[in-house]
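Sequence in, structure out. Go.
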Amino acid sequence: MARVFEGMFIGGRSLSTGQTFADLNPADGSVWAQVPDGGRHEARAAIESAEAAFPAWSALPFTRRAHYMMKIAEVFEKRRAQIVEALQAEGGGWFGKGMFETGYVPEIFHAAAASTYTPIGEIIPSEHGKVSLAMRQPLGVVSVISPWNFPVLLTGRGIAFALAAGNTVVLKPSEETPYCGGLLFAEVFAEAGVPDGVLNVVTCSRTNVLPVGQELIDNPRVKGVSFTGSTAVGRQIAARAGAHLKKCCVELGGKDSLIVCEDADLERASAAANFGSFMHQGQICMSVEKVLVHESVYDEFLRRFIERAARLKVGDPRDKSNIIGPLINDKQAAKVKEQIDDAVARGAKVVLGGKVTGRFVEPTILTGVTPDMKVYQDETFGPVVPVIPFRNDAEAIAIANDTEYGLSSGVITRDEQRGLSIARRLETGMCHINCSSVNDEPHAPFGGAKASGMGRHGGRWATETFTETRWITLDRGGRPYPPMF
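Output:
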């Protein structure tokens, strides 16, 4: 029987709109929940609530905000089993993915708590004897628009550091995961005793995404915008925020490469490729979407990679033995099938998988992929990856950089100096040597280059993202004015 959520979370209260939309289980298409369908009016009310809560929240001693972050982490830890079940049912994730995500989220709030104890400014020199301060202050109301693929983790990352810095937040989760990415946080924050209005959650159907999103960006009470999602939507959001001269942090798509050098440990390399390409059906912004292998070890690597990937079971993730669950919706499954069909039609060979059944796509490995194919240039966001040979490091770097995206990357080599040399020439915001492109730690600077976004999440970089730098001076030297004044 489907769950029914009576209202969205505004000003510490549940607000009903009288309208709901169906929240589907992507594995079988059943209705998992009925969720409130908000519009511009509800978004405006949430912004007003956040603005009203800002003065008191930002004025709290930093230790108090840190304690709230710790309490939120405790509630997430206590509710872990229930959240894993929700992630499987609402988001189609494998059990292990849910365990990782729910284990990671408390650490985000621990790191956010720690961030309140770090310096928020500097004393800088003054030729006039002033006490000259560069200080960071919270922006005010921040809109956070979060995605469906890791809804608990990426929502937590989007809001935790902003709140710890003293901002208040209006959260709009994806219409695909309105509970795990939104209403769950309302429940957790209420249980943790966070003051009313500090976090507000507005849920809406795809029909109302445009007016709600516009309000969350255009409203003059909103001082900053955080978005995680597709590059196409991110461009629109960044442009709209820019038109209002608002701070904007957008973390977008990727077409990330894993470079396997001839001196690589091939067991490590094939494991990194398998995890990076197929974890959560490849529905990760930093998934491995091209495996580039030195021609001298290409055949042996491909054999090991196929052998590993063939062991991944496909099916409903409520069965814990199934590692590859469904894609989030029919549109995404159709996009992935289109890329496979286009590649085959243009001469690529499917050496593993290739079958698409409804929303379920087998782990698929392609060879013979060329730059004219959609799977080479476009983000896939599914369990499909080409393996491409290269002759030397310069060629590998050129192939990896041959994309509008620049989020993450990986390099597998026993020569760390060589790895660092390659990393420095890759046009990505992140690079991981002897590891997959899929990496994240809550205190590290996470973000991309080129069409993969701007701004950074994590640690002091998140504090910089969600605060404004101000210059304040105390005149103690009696700076003179010109005599005519």
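Check: DSSP finds 15 helices and 25 strands in the chain. The CA atoms of residues 96 and 323 lie 8 Å apart.
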